[in-house]
């Protein structure tokens, strides 16, 4: 049996990056950028007024002038006015150009405006270019402000819009098939018999994928029947880029999945990992390099393996640089009764000192899925250690992005 690290290595070997596609900016949220976003001009593009108030020539104030007749109004969205009279001022609004001949903006709060005359309050010093956002101070024209490989979240989308990208180059999202297996598993709308359970893993997988921007997904379910499994696997291997199976990879008499995949030309890269939950995890690729993840059907195993292996794989395959890596401290002593790598679900609390604490939520067994809804993710506790004192720093995998 291989270790978690070996499984990581084998999964990340020869990952083929999906090609890039140009999409409208509105449809790009959550996708991985495949071009650098460049400032198409200086940012800000002009000396920008940052407060509603007046703009003056500071020299006049330095010479003792405190009362400035208003010579005009500089509105945002209009070319710069010129202050011809250095002893006067122009009213300015946030977002407007700094008028020519002005080098200081004083907010309305600091002046008295009466009969078109602005009198500056006493008691504070004015500085050159105060309340002016200088041209190019956020980035010079041509500078690379968002590198390719970044996930387009709200601020990156806003930035793309600001530099005129109606369309952006992003990674094509893989088409993903989710296949649940098991005679006991039925669709959620059906009447459930005492010996049956409702499909839940496929929904968990789909929700996690969509949350992370993988919206090209389809769910299937097959009974533990060799012919049906064979025809379903053929279909999904043809029509999808990635196949995620749930169930049927353990040692049971009806766990046909590995043998059928092998017969269909999907080469087993590993089966079973020294971990709990998730030990029966199966991974293989077909001749075209399409990956197949066989996740153990127990709901905690399915979700842990999905977040621990499948999502990191997908994120690499779409070219995500610098994926999120989080750590938390255990909020209490933890005793582990196995020498396997242990994935422990935790509830996160942020302490007053800023430390993220993970409170263990122990499950009865890997079928105890209700406990997961009280957790935020899980920590990975290394193999061959049995005692983890309170405060131990552990890698944390969040249920989510
Ligand atoms: P298996 O990996 O097929 O041996 O299944 C392990 C356990 O997980 C069994 O108790 C199954 O009933 C359960 N299980 C399998 N598939 C699902 C599913 N899609 N949703 C919920 N539970 C499942
Ligand atoms: Mg099964």
Global mean pLDDT: 97
**Amount of beta strand:** 25-35%
Strand order of the largest sheet: 7-4-6-5-9-8
Global Rg: 30 Å
Shape descriptor: elongated
Q: Given the helix and strand composition, which structural class is it? A: alpha/beta
Return residue spans where pLDDT drops below 50 for at least 5 consecutive residues.
none
CATH class of the largest domain: Alpha Beta
- List each distinct ligand once: adenosine monophosphate, magnesium ion
Q: How many strand units?
A: 28
Per CATH, which architecture of the largest domain? Answer: 3-Layer(aba) Sandwich
Q: What level of helicity do the residues show?
A: 10-25%
The number of domains = 4
- Under CATH, the homologous superfamily of the largest domain reads MoaB/Mog-like domain
- CATH fold naming of the largest domain: Molybdenum Cofactor Biosythetic Enzyme, Chain A
Q: How many strands, what sense, and barrel or not for the largest sheet? A: 6 strands, mixed
Q: DSSP helix count?
A: 7
Q: What separation lies between the terminal Cα atoms?
A: 30 Å
């Amino acid at each position: 049996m291989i270790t978690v690290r070996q499984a990581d290595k084998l999964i990340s070997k020869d990952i083929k990056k999906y090609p890039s596609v140009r999409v409208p900016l509105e449809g790009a949220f959550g996708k991985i950028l495949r071009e650098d976003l460049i400032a198409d001009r200086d940012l800000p593009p002009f000396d920008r007024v940052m407060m509603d108030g007046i703009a003056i020539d500071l020299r006049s104030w330095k010479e003792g002038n405190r009362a400035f007749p208003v010579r005009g109004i500089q509105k945002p969205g209009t070319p710069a006015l010129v202050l011809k009279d250095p002893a006067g001022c122009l009213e300015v609004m946030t977002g407007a150009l700094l008028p020519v001949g002005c080098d200081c903006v004083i907010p309305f709060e600091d002046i008295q405006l009466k009969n078109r005359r602005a009198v500056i309050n006493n008691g504070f010093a004015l500085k050159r270019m105060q309340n002016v956002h200088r041209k190019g101070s956020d980035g010079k024209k041509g500078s690379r402000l968002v590198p390719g490989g970044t996930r387009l979240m709200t601020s990156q989308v806003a930035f793309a819009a600001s530099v005129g990208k109606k369309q952006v180059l992003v990674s094509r999202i893989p088409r993903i098939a989710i296949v649940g297996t098991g005679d006991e598993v039925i669709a959620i709308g059906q009447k459930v018999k005492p010996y049956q359970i409702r499909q839940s893993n496929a929904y968990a997988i789909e929700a996690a994928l969509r949350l992370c921007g993988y919206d090209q997904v389809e769910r299937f379910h097959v009974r533990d029947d060799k012919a049906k499994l064979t025809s379903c696997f053929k279909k999904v291997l043809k029509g999808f880029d990635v196949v995620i199976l749930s169930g049927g990879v353990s040692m049971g008499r009806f766990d046909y999945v590995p043998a059928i995949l092998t017969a269909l030309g999907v080469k087993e890269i590993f089966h079973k990992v020294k971990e709990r939950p998730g030990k029966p995890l199966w991974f293989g690729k077909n001749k075209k390099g399409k990956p197949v993840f066989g996740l153990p059907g127990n709901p905690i195993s399915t979700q842990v393996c999905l977040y621990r292996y499948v999502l990191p794989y997908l994120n690499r395959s779409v070219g995500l640089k610098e994926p999120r890596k989080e750590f938390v401290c255990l909020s209490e002593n933890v005793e582990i009764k196995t020498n396997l790598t242990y994935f422990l679900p935790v509830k996160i609390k942020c302490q007053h000192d800023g430390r993220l604490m993970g409170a263990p939520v122990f499950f009865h067994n890997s079928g105890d899925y209700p406990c997961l809804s009280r957790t935020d993710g899980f920590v990975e506790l290394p193999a061959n250690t049995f005692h983890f004192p309170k405060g131990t720093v552990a890698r944390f995998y969040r249920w989510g992005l």
